[in-house]
Amino acid sequence: MKIYLISILFFIIILFSSINRYENYYTFFKPFEIKAKYNKNKYILDTYNFSSFIEDKYFLDELVKLLLTNTELLNLKTIYQKNDTNNLLNNLNKNLIQFLIMPLPLVYLKNNIYKNIRSIINISNITIFILYNNKFHVNISKFEDFLKKDKVLNIGISNKNSVSDYISQLFLNKIQNKIKNYKLYYDTHENLVKNLKKQKSKYHVILFLDSNPSNKLRKIIQDDYENIIYIKDIDFNIFDFNLRNEYFFNQEYIKFYKPSFHYPNFKYKTISFTNILLTNKYLPNNIINIILNFILKNKEFINTKIKGYEIKDYNSINTIYKIIPHPETHKVLNNLNYSL
């Protein structure tokens, strides 16, 4: 009887073990969702670590899953720490991580400090949106108009030490000749929008980042029954700095999922920046080749899998040369007939 019970217990353990192995295999290594031209028997077992700011966690997690399920790469991991630009770049420079998604304005011209970092490709475009309450701030055409009654421009931003925080401070430093006195307030995006609608809001404007067209902006417009939330233009022509030469920001128009009389496309100017995929000089050429080819050849497939975060900024590939490109980048782009 005792032997019989032990046999049953052993069988149950074996059964659960096999089930768990299957679930892990299916979850992480489910080949292959798209047609691929490579030998599926030659998997790459080396481990490569990816990282980004916390705000880009969803996008990076999903991208890594797609690489796992559609390429020879079997051991890819994502690592997230606190949002610290220099710490992330230092980890990439020392090969503690092998891939990093970083806003281009935050890494621009830092090759002198982090000499081992290399660029791969512009991975996405992020747009800056600035909103204000027209019920309490009327006849606003330029930023200085907010300061007709107040000495300090109060700006609401989503969370301290966030990408919004870093990009906002970089932008505001560039336009100090227009806005010399400002104060930043930090809160969640939802609370910022609620406060902006109040009669005595402590913010003159709120600033947030999103794709263009923006789901965040769409929701704000839908919930703005009084039609009091207005969009503030950001036009290169009114500022005395040459961002075009620096490649910090790009001028663009805000687009809408459902354009209307009040919110047509190509009316409101704003600025955007590029998220760039970085690596370091220690990465083998074949790994860069696999990842870059997968992204370039499967843009539409990736966009259908990663909702709300569209990869589309291939027309700005030339900006990667503001950071030393990985040698394999030249080869892949040439083979796919991308202009350099």
Ordered list of secondary-structure elements with their pairings:
Layout: H1 2-28, E1 44-52, H2 57-70, E2 73-79, H3 85-93, E3 99-103, H4 104-107, E4 117-133, E5 153-158, H5 163-174, E6 182-187, H6 189-196, E7 205-210, H7 215-223, E8 229-231, H8 243-246, E9 250-253, E10 269-280, H9 285-297, H10 299-305, H11 327-335
Parallel strand pairs: 1-2, 1-3, 5-6, 5-7
Antiparallel strand pairs: 3-10, 4-7, 4-8, 4-10, 9-10
Please tell me about this protein's structure.
The chain has 2 domains: 12-123 and 278-335, D-Maltodextrin-Binding Protein, domain 2 (3-Layer(aba) Sandwich), CATH 3.40.190.10; 126-273, D-Maltodextrin-Binding Protein, domain 2 (3-Layer(aba) Sandwich), CATH 3.40.190.10. Helices cover 34% and strands 22% of the residues. The protein contains 11 helices and 10 strands. The protein has helices at 2-28, 57-70, 85-93, 104-107, 163-174, 189-196, 215-223, 243-246, 285-297, 299-305, 327-335; strands at 44-52, 73-79, 99-103, 117-133, 153-158, 182-187, 205-210, 229-231, 250-253, 269-280. Strands 1, 2, 3, 4, 5, 6, 7, 8, 9 and 10 form a 10-stranded mixed beta sheet that branches. The longest helix is centred in the first third of the chain and has 27 residues, at 2-28.
